[in-house]
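Limitations
The structure tokens in this dataset are predictions for the assembled complex, not deposited experimental models. Users should treat interface geometry with appropriate caution, especially where small molecules or nucleic acid strands are included. An illustrative entry is reproduced here so readers can see what is and is not provided.
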Amino acid sequence: MSDLMAKVVILGAGHAGGSAAAFLRQYGHEGPIVLIGDEPIPPYQRPPLSKAWLKGEADADSLTLKPASWYAENNCDLRLGVTAVSIDRAARTVVLSTGDAVAYDFLIIATGARARKLPIPGADLDGVLELRTAADAERLKSALGPDKRLAIIGGGYIGLEAAASARALGSWALIIERESRILARVACEELSSFFQSYHQAHGVNFELGAEIKAFEGESGHVRQIRLADGRVVACDAALVGVGAVPNEEIAKGAGLNCVNGIVVDLQARTEDPLVFAIGDVTHRPLPLYDRQFRLESVPNALEQAKQVACAITGRPSPSPEVPWFWSDQYDLKLQIAGMPFDADTIIVRGDPAAAKFAIFHLKGDQLQAVEAVNAPPEFMMGKQLIASRKPVSRERLADTSISMKEVAA
Amino acid sequence: MAKITYIEHDGTEHTVDVKSGLSVMEGAIKNNIPGIDADCGGACACATCHVYVDEAWQSKTGEKSAMEESMLDFAENVEPNSRLSCQIKVADELEGLVVRMPESQH
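Predicted assembly:
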């Protein structure tokens, strides 16, 4: 049988899984595709859930990747509200929560990541929320509005975006962060302090270096948060955004190598040539940085969806991309390219006070990453410089009188 | 609703109906038309939905924002009629719009 006629089963109908099905069809795959998702709705975009959608600027229809009719029209058997329970690699079948066994020629694991839970008392109260799915976002949205108090646990990007959206909807918002600064795991100090000031100017409150002891409630609904120092903070809802863990258990159960994510190569293939994995659940090579890493981003999901579609349809692998991320908060557009691994120098270009600047992370004279706030030229040229590994001059990079095109020339 | 024709770099044409209110990019993605990647889903953050708008349509597709202008300035194969298709909103008066795609979005 030609691979183009092979039956492909995709576990996980998120951005990665849905896009893999679409790319397979774009690349001429003719065999049946089974797309299995545990949520009740077809694949959709998650990023707007904390941004435009939460603020009411985007409707549910605009979030869907493809119209619901696309799947049947393209011989894609979309099974929603169903979980895969186990994989039998010898028999090439997947057992579903319905008890059905589905045979595959190729399997793509795109099970994503789930929100990390806080193991503290009261975490199961109503009103203690997380934000991964459309259903989570509905719950959060209904808890926002004037006179509502939202406490956000975790000063990461999800928490900051939710805070900005909460303020736009008139809610009181507080960010409680265990570390001494927000974005501690993902951004440098300069960027942390910029975002904190910007949020403070928009009325967001902060408790930094604060440990949470418990969520406390009345009649099953959260009413306050008890901090380790004994203080209590009243709230109508609490959003927990303290990172995500990969849904790799099914792969582990099938004996596949997992290291904080399913280990794959640049074709998104696991050690089993018939089994691939893509998206947030993978521990993937980053050839520009000479290491394996787990990324959580839409560009990563799309890149790997293309890799697997190319591998199955016999196309040459696409060339590796520079990892990148974005975030919208208030009138700020943050664009990040690259990863600041082993960086030894930080160069700020532009003026943070004017909310238009970029932070470059260099390793010697090589650019490893750029964080750009309302600064598309710095982001776009930075991304190209990271890919080309061309040496850059620190002095010129810091000098805004020299355009980014000249800096990169 | 407007009928929009997307022409891939190799000349393959796709003519589809796109609902008013969606962007030209969303029309391509929802119809699984190859050649428009739209990594950021329409946030004007990635320049991977770059298209060329036929001259006759340039006035009807609106002005570029400063952000779009700035992103396009650094994309590849940019021409005077380049646009980011996520920034063009579909309306009835775009009936018959033709957009062409560059060789690559990356």
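Some entries come with short summary sentences. For this one: The two ends of chain A are 50 Å apart (CA to CA).
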